[in-house]
Each structure stands twice: as C-alpha cells, then as structure tokens.
C-alpha cells in the first residue's frame, strides 16, 4: 500500500482514539467533582490543574484562560482549537487524514467520522455540552466505538487494517499510562487520605475512565486498592485497555505487516515493541513498585514514542526529494536520450 | 407544486409546452409530484442536503477561509430526456469524439487538415495548448481524448447545440452518480415505474477505457489516479472515482521516476505504475519539462511517457481542441475526416481574428456573448445584453488588442426547467447538459449527464463557482 496512505490510516485511527480518551478523562473528572466532600475553589483548582499537567499544556492554558475552573478546563480540552489535543482538534485532524484516504476507507466509516466532526463544530454541540455534559461525552465515546466497530466489520483486515490497529493501540496504551500517572501525582501527596474514602473514589474514577470498573471487579472481587488498580491497568493480559494488552496488539500487528515470526525482528519498530512487550510480560507489581510507578510509566511512554518513530522510518518515510536536484537529473537523462536517438548530422 | 401558476414566459421549457401542457416524457413525473405536498417536498430536500453534507459531497471554494467546503446545490426536480432525443445526442457525440481524436492525431503528425486548407496553420500554431514538442509522438492506440465532457445547450426552439468540448480534465461525473443515489433515496419507489436508464456502469467503463491504453497492451496493468491533492476543488470526485474503480489515488509526491519508469512509493518499496488517469493539467505534470514551480507533478514523468513506459489519460496536448477558436472548426473537421454533416451543430460563432467577423462583433457587442478562447468556468466572458456600457467598452479594447484570443456568439436563450425556488414553488431556470464520453476500445456514453442549472433568476451562467446547481438527469428507455 502507498506509504502516504498507511501513514494517514495510522494517524486517522490515533486521533479518533485520542478524542475518545480525552472525552473519557474529562467526563470522569467532572463526575469526580460530585463525589468530593468539602469542595472549595482551591481544591477545584488543584483538581483541574493536574489534568492540564497530564496533557503537557500548562503554558498554553495559562495564555488562553484566567484560571482553571470546571468550565475553562473542560472547554480547553473539548472545543479549544488552539489546543492540539482537544477533542475538536483531534477530530479535525482525524478527518483531514480520512480525507486524504477517502478512497481507501468505506463510505460508512467516512460518514461516521464526518458526522462526529460536523457535530462537535455545531452550535448544538455546545448547547448539549452545557446542559448535559455526560450525554455529550458519551456521544463522543459512542462515535469512536461506532467508527472502530465499522472498521472491524466492513474494512478488509489487510495491511491497512493493521496500520489502523497500530495507531489505535499505541495511542490507547499511551493514554492509559497517562491516566494512571496523573492520579499517582495527586494521590501521593495526600498521605492523610490514603486508604480513605476519597482515595477509593479517586481510584474508582481511574477505573471508570478506562471503562474498567466492572472488569476489575471480576478479577479483584470487591476492594478497590491503588496497587491492584495499577496492576490491572498495566499488566492485565486480557483487558483491552490495559497497557500490556495494547502492546501485545501492537507487536502482533507489526509482525503481521512484515511477516516476521515471534521472537525475531526485521526492523527497529519490531525490536522496540518486542522489548517493551517482554518487559511487560516479565514484570510484577513488586518490580514496578521498586522502580517507582511514575518512572516505570514514563519509560513506557518513551518506548511507545520510539516504536511510533520507528514505524514512521520503516514504512512511511521516504527521504524528501530534493526537487531541484531531481529536475536536473531528469533533464540530464532526457538530454542523453535525445542525443542518443537523433541521427548525427555533420 | 407544479400545477397552476408556472409560466414558461416565452422560453423553451423542458417540461411544459407553450400552451402549458406537460410534455409526454414528463407526464409520469407530473402525476407523482402532484401527489406531494410542498411540505413533503421540503422535507425530502432537507434530507438530501443533509446527506450530501454528511457524505462530504462538497466542492471547495477558493479564497474562502473556514468552512471552505460547500455542498453543490441540488434541485429535486429531475431533467428528463426521452429515448428519441438521447439517440440523437449519443450519435452526435460519438461522431464528434471520433473526429476530435482524428484531428488531434492529424495535427501532431501529417497536418493534412492544414495542408488541405481547412484550418489555417496560424490558428493551430498559436493555440495556447498546442504542444509542438509532441509532434510525431505516437500515443497508445492513437487515442488522445479518452474522457470528454461536452457541454450541450438547447435554444429557444429546443434544438440541441454544442457549446464547448472539454477534452482535458472534465469534472462533474461524480455528481451525476451521487445525484442519482440521492434521488433514489428520496423517491425510492418511483424509479422502476419511471423507466430510467441506470448510470452506474460509468466507473467500470472508465476503468476498461484506461486499461485499454496500457503500454504494450499489458494484460493486467496497474492503473492509478493522479490528483493535485485534498485542496483541489474536485478532490471529492477523484476519491469517488478511484474508490469505485478500486485503483490507488496518488499525489505527485507518491510517484518517482527511475530509468524512465514510473513507480509509486509503498510500504513495501517501489511498485511500477502503467497507466495514469491524471486530473492535473499538462503544465503541472512534470516540473523538469513544463512549469518548474509545480510541486504537484513528477519530475521525469514526461520522459517515461515519451519512452512509452507509462500511458496518460487524457494524452498530452489535447487542450488545443478546447480552444474556442478551434471549436469553430469542429463541424469542418467532421466533414473533412468523416465526410459527414455534424449531427449536433455548433452555436454560430464569429472569430475576432477574421476581419469580416471582427467588424460584425464590434458592431453588435450589446447583443453577443464574447468569450476568451482559453478560459472556462464562466470566467473571461461578456454577456452583451446583461453588460454595462463600461464593461462593453472594456471588452472592445481587449478584443481589438488580441483578436486571436476572442470569439463571439449570439446570446442563446437557453432552455429552462422547472426548479424549486425558496423550497416551495417551482419557477423556470436556465439549464445546460454535460454528458460524459469515454473513448477506449469503443465509444461509450453514459446515458445521462450533469444537468447544471443557473439558480439565480434570469441568469445564463450555470457554473458552480457562480451560483449554479445541478439536477439528476433521467434518460428514459422509451419516449414517455
């Protein structure tokens, strides 16, 4: 398949997954506010501040808004087109990429994405967001699910599909690690609350933002404990939003694209992904605890970035043609052909 | 909604005769539509518009920032052509495309038509899109124009006339196909009963046409569509056609030429390309030969083309046939190459570079339509009866300065068609018709075409960039 097309499919899928995850994070954080006791401005501010931090956009936020409030932060993450990771920006970029491969994806997939895009940019979307934010964010999640479901059921499971899976699972693994990481930050300082009611609320919220609460309880019957939550979201072998699960999928897709058997590698991307996967396969929570959760998650994010850029180099990237040079070479060749074919006259 | 106050106002109306009676081939439609209330109609219209937007069936308006995509306005009242009229169109267009291809072959080879005095040499040599560097070059199967969109109009007596030929990169066919889908969705039960000929085979016909010209008659050639990219106004159409044909759509940067062969850059390295359906004008194809500043093309493409390693549709140099001065000579070409009279006549045309014609043009500017020889899309045009004094004076200067670049035609009062206005009532609006002609192993003409309608009251300009819309075009199996 064309490298440019593979690139667009990868990013199309990544941006949709990103929009969905942003919707999840904002939604859960809104809901968490309802569970807090003793809410004061300061506490609300801290709460939202940490969220801005998790997306590395503190500077941009400060430039655009006076202070972090429920309204300003959710606006920033949802509609702000200056914010490259907002839902609107993610969906716009997903659609730009989809437009470039409009001929490759099915009409249903395109229509669904285009519908979401037109919706988030409409006045009606803002209205709903104000009056019923939970309904609004559910629509975004539903839209992403519908798109992914359509991809599974109407798009040929060939090379292009594997690139779509790559984009989706790399993004998802990255976001799950960030969701965990940010809560780790706000939880740790409040030693007073560890194990307390707020703590359980917070960690339950993490599970909910990954739609993991029910699955978690299947495994760890009833108590919500920080380390178990972390274990579930990092190491679960079969929960589809866990980091390990996503990395398994990434590795499998890479191998299906190149046809390389397991435990071997034919390019940098496979090497990185194989290493990351073994790391996850052979880690226990004790190891992770020993190295520090934050450091461990940081390492995973770096590895995912490395895989992403290795995929780019292996499959998408052709060194930029030096157009002037190319033109000269071609003109030179044409000159030679002409000299060669025209009969010598004297 | 079509009953009562509709007035033909002295124009040739496609649906109604001068006495207000419905023409026979519109009777079934009339029956069906008179059962619909204005409200139902409006609902259907809104549903269709919403689906066009959702599907992204839009065109790009240049020089507009946010929301650059607009839907091409679509009118729900279809234009209907009975079989007997269509047969005439089909024969006339077939005759014309064959003559045009013979003409192009001739002027790039022996130039008999010049030598025998049918067309004066200066007209050919001065044509903006004549590519003298391709003299003597043999294109695959001697076909130059594979895909042609010829614009037809009807005058006040209902006679079909050719307004212009588009032998470079004609667009609009995707609207024909999508309009039909929209109509079927809006009126699901009506089609079978109406006896409308289907248009869906266009894509497979196009693919067959493209495969026919594969280099060296290659059995299973790789065909691609070359697009200028997502920002081109016809990008939707490029994607639509590529998808329907199941071929890759490529941009210039996806292609590379090595040793006079064309390759595309894929995830598995370079893969060879045999036929390129290019939706890019000659000038932009290859910066090492034509415009050096073009970043849309592929350096070396022309070299590969000359070496016979890749085929292009349409061929290079067809633009000379789009020149409005050359258009004047098409009936003579038909006579010269085929020994026949043209089945569909041209609009009477005056050449500003002929002394006698020039005098006539300058004396009658307020009555005439003046056109620049190489402009399209409704640009570079003077419609005398609607122009102000200063506009006429302005054009007079231009014509005198550059007579080779202008032609004039009498102002034709194009036929009109009932068209929905303000969502509730039908009024007459001027229309034209662009059928699509394919010339491969044989000539195939899709039964239908793009009917464009000038939505502004009284306007004669049907181009989408200037307030035009479109209608579904129904060619019937029979005459009623």
Instruction: Estimate what percentage of residues of chain B fall within beta strands.
Output: 15-25%
Structural class of chain A: mainly alpha
Structural shape of chain A:
globular
Strand content of chain A: under 5%
What best-fitting shape of chain B do the alpha-carbon axes yield? globular
CATH architecture term of the domain at 201-313 in chain B: 3-Layer(aba) Sandwich
Instruction: Count up the helices of chain B.
Output: 15
The percent of residues in helical segments of chain B reads 25-40%
Biggest β-sheet strands, sense, barrel of chain A: none
Record keyword descriptors for this entry.
heterodimer, A: 346 residues, mainly alpha, 2 domains, 75% helix, globular, disordered C terminus, B: 480 residues, alpha+beta, Rossmann fold, 4-stranded antiparallel beta sheet, 31% helix
Could you please describe the fold and organization of this structure?
The complex is a heterodimer of chains A (346) and B (480). Chain A is mostly helical and 346 residues long. Chain A contains 17 helices and no strands. Chain A folds into 2 domains: 1-155, no CATH class; 162-316, no CATH class. Chain A starts with a helix and ends in a 5-residue tail after the last helix. The model of chain A is unreliable at 189-195 and 341-346 (pLDDT under 50). With 480 residues, chain B is an alpha+beta fold. Among the domains of chain B are: 201-313, Rossmann fold (3-Layer(aba) Sandwich), CATH 3.40.50.11290; 350-410, Dna Ligase, domain 1, CATH 3.30.1490. Helices cover 31% and strands 22% of the residues of chain B. Chain B contains 15 helices and 22 strands. Chain B has helices at residues 27-34, 38-55, 83-107, 112-115, 121-125, 173-186, 190-194, 202-212, 235-245, 282-285, 301-306, 324-328, 330-338, 355-363, 389-401, and strands spanning 58-60, 69-71, 74-81, 147-154, 160-166, 223-226, 248-250, 255-258, 261-266, 269-272, 275-278, 311-313, 350-351, 368-372, 381-383, 406-410, 416-421, 425-434, 436-439, 443-445, 450-454, 468-475. In chain B, the strands form 6 sheets. In chain B, strands 3-22-21-18-17 form a 5-stranded mixed beta sheet. A 4-stranded antiparallel beta sheet of chain B has the order 5-4-19-20. In chain B, helix 2 packs across helix 6 (173-186). Chain B starts with 26 loop residues before the first helix and ends in a 5-residue tail after the last strand. Classes of the chains: A mainly alpha (346), B alpha+beta (480). The interface between A and B is large, with 34 and 37 residues.
């Amino acid at each position: 398949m064309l490298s440019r097309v593979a690139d667009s499919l990868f990013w199309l899928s990544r941006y949709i997954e990103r929009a969905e995850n942003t919707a999840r994070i904002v939604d859960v954080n809104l809901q968490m506010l309802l569970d807090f006791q003793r809410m004061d401005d300061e506490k609300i501010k801290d709460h939202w501040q940490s969220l801005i931090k998790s997306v590395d956009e503190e500077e941009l936020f400060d430039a655009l808004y006076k202070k972090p409030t429920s309204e300003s932060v959710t606006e920033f993450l949802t509609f702000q087109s200056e914010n490259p990771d907002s839902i609107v920006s993610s969906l716009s970029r997903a659609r730009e990429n989809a437009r470039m491969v409009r001929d490759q994806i099915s009409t249903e997939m395109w229509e669904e994405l285009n519908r979401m895009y037109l919706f988030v940019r409409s006045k009606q979307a803002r209205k709903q967001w104000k009056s019923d934010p939970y309904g609004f964010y559910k629509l975004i999640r539903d839209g992403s699910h519908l798109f992914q479901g359509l991809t599974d059921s109407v798009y040929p499971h060939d090379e292009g599909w594997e690139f779509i899976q790559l984009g989706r699972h790399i993004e998802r693994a990255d976001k799950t690690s960030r969701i965990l990481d940010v809560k780790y930050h706000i939880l740790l300082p409040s030693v007073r609350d560890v194990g307390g009611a707020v703590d359980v609320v917070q960690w339950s919220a993490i599970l909910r933002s990954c739609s993991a609460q029910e699955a978690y309880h299947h495994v760890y019957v009833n108590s919500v404990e920080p380390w178990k939550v972390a274990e579930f979201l990092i190491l679960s072998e079969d929960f589809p939003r866990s980091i390990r699960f996503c990395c398994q999928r990434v590795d499998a897709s890479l191998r299906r694209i190149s046809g390389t058997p397991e435990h071997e590698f034919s390019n940098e991307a496979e090497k990185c992904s194989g290493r990351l996967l073994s790391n996850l396969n052979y880690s226990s929570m004790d190891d992770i605890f020993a190295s520090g959760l934050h450091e461990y998650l940081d390492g995973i994010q770096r590895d995912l970035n490395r895989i992403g850029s290795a995929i780019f180099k292996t499959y998408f990237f052709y060194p930029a043609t030096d157009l002037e040079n190319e033109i000269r070479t071609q003109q030179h060749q044409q000159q030679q052909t002409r000299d060669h074919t025209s009969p010598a006259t004297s | 909604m079509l009953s009562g106050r509709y007035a033909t106002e002295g124009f040739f109306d496609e649906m109604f005769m001068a006495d207000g009676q419905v023409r026979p081939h519109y009777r079934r439609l009339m029956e069906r539509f008179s059962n619909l209330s204005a409200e139902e109609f409006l609902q259907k219209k809104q549903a269709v518009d919403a689906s066009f937007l959702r599907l992204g069936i839009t065109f790009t308006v240049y020089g507009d920032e946010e929301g650059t995509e607009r839907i091409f306005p679509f009118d729900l009242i279809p234009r209907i052509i009975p079989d007997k009229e269509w047969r005439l169109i089909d024969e006339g267009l077939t005759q014309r495309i064959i003559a045009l291809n013979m003409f192009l072959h001739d002027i790039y080879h022996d130039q008999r038509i010049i030598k025998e005095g049918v067309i004066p040499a200066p007209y050919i040599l001065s044509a903006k899109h004549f590519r003298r560097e391709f003299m003597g070059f043999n294109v695959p199967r001697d076909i130059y124009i594979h895909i042609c969109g010829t614009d037809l109009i009807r005058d006040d007596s209902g006679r079909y006339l050719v307004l212009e030929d588009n032998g470079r990169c004609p667009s609009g066919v995707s609207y024909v196909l999508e309009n039909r889908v929209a109509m079927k969705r809006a009126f699901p039960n009506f089609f079978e009963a109406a006896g409308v000929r289907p248009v869906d085979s266009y894509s497979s016909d196009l693919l067959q046409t493209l495969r026919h010209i594969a280099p060296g008659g290659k059995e299973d050639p790789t065909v691609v569509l070359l697009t200028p990219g997502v920002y081109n106004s016809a990008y939707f159409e490029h994607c639509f056609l590529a998808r329907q044909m199941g071929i890759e759509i490529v941009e210039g940067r996806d292609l590379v030429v090595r040793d006079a062969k064309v390759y595309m850059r894929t995830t598995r390295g370079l893969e060879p390309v045999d036929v390129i359906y290019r939706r890019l004008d000659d000038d932009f194809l290859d910066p090492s030969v034509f415009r050096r500043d073009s970043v849309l093309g592929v350096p070396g493409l022309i070299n590969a083309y000359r070496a016979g390693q890749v085929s292009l549709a349409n061929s290079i140099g067809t633009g000379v046939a789009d020149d409005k001065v050359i258009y004047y000579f098409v009936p003579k070409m038909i006579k010269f190459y085929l020994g026949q009279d043209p089945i569909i006549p041209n609009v009477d045309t005056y050449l500003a570079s002929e002394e006698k014609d020039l005098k006539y043009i300058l004396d009658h500017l307020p009555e005439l339509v003046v056109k620049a020889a190489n402009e399209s899309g409704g640009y570079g045009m003077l419609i005398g009866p609607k122009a102000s004094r200063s506009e006429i004076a302005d054009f007079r200067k231009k014509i005198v300065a550059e007579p080779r670049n202008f032609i004039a035609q009498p102002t034709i009062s194009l036929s009109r068609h009932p068209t929905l206005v303000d969502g509730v009532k039908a009024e007459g609006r001027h229309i034209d018709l662009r059928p699509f002609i394919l010339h491969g192993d044989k000539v195939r003409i899709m039964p239908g075409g793009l009917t464009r309608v000038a939505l502004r009251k009284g306007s004669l300009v049907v181009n989408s960039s200037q307030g035009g819309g479109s209608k579904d075009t129904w060619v019937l199996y029979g005459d009623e």
